[in-house]
Amino acid sequence: MKAGTIRDIARRAVDEFDGTIPCDPDLLLSFRGVGPKCANLVLGIACGEPSIGVDVHVHRVTNRWGYVHTTTPEKTMAALQEKLPRLYWVEINALLVPFGKHVCTGVAPKCSACPLLSMCRQVGVTKHG
Asked: Which candidate in 37, 75, 101, 110 is catalytic?
């Protein structure tokens, strides 16, 4: 499924944008399979525009830390845009996705092995590994 979506995006980029991905958020969101997270990652990484790509990992980690208090990734994105210095907008996704997958996991986070434990509020953590 993802391969087909990527092929369709590439084909549309060639057909409509001379082979370049547009650096316009509304145009990016018009591509089938591209949501806010993906659009913001493209804007930040490929276009060099400060933007925050928030997925479930970034959402969970920043809320668990107590840095933001939100209920959805979209609300987390808005809260981070208000609070996080622009300098870190692009890189936060690359840093927190692997951290959220391997350390600050959804079920039984590995708090005892976490290098940030002393700074973490552990919001919502009821069980850890």
From this structure: 37
